[in-house]
Design goal:
alpha/beta; N-(1-d-carboxylethyl)-l-norvaline Dehydrogenase, domain 2; five-stranded mixed beta sheet; 47% helix; 11% strand
């Protein structure tokens, strides 16, 4: 939807063999929007032509697009929960690209921002994306559970979360850290640990360690995960 709205002539094909085999006939590019594990298999079924074959898998390199000569990748660094929302968010988004210049042309048509990520950095890049989106959602799930335990609406914490993200965007992570770990107030951290359910303690302590690393503090041994 986003590329069509940006002026590209887009044809959607299903997974039937007859469609996939000739997908690259008479077109400029074929974008394989399939699960990561299926990219190599689907690329191998497409009959090679002068068209560029691209994938949008964040963790994969270009080797999975063999036997095609002109290959590229374009991975949107954005959360796409559904088709309509995704089409809106792709406009102006960041994209990790590699390979044929057509990937950059696609990003430009979406008024996006491109960053080149080579095969050797793809997995690390995608791991950071998983932390930034998926793991952040998991962390906010913990906030939601602890807020419920405290009898406070989760919504009460949303402005705090938004303000924290704004601080990081302005000053970076280390300079934005506040709270007991930043102050070295380990008694307050211990009080937190005592007050929360046992099931929440490993994640909390792991993040205490991560926060301490930001400000180069040593975590007391009794607050180390597994101690």
């Amino acid at each position: 939807m986003a590329l069509a709205a940006a002026g590209w002539d887009v044809e959607l094909l299903g997974g039937r063999s007859s469609e996939v085999v000739d997908a690259a006939a008479g077109v400029d590019a074929v974008l394989l929007a399939v699960p990561d594990a299926a990219v190599a298999e689907v690329a191998g079924r497409v009959r090679p032509t002068p068209a560029v074959v691209l994938h949008c898998a964040g963790s994969l390199g270009l080797d999975v697009l063999a036997p095609h000569e002109r290959v590229a990748s374009i991975h949107p660094l954005v959360s796409l929960p559904d088709v309509e929302t995704g089409a809106e968010r792709l406009h102006g988004a960041w994209f990790a690209i590699a390979g044929d210049p057509i990937a950059g042309e696609l990003v430009e048509s979406l008024a996006g921002r491109a960053v080149s990520v080579g095969d050797e950095q793809r997995v690390a890049y995608h791991a950071a994306a998983a932390v930034a989106s998926n793991h952040l959602v998991a962390l906010l799930g913990q906030v939601e559970r602890l807020a419920f335990e405290a009898g406070v609406p989760f919504e009460a914490y949303l402005d705090l979360i938004v303000g924290t993200l704004d601080n990081v965007s302005r000053a970076g992570a280390a300079a934005s850290l506040t709270g007991p770990v930043a102050r070295g107030d380990w008694d307050t951290v211990r009080a937190h640990v005592r007050s929360i359910p046992d099931s929440e303690r490993p994640a909390y302590l792991a993040l205490v360690d991560a926060a301490a690393r930001l400000v180069d503090r040593a975590v007391p041994t009794d607050l180390v995960v597994g101690s």
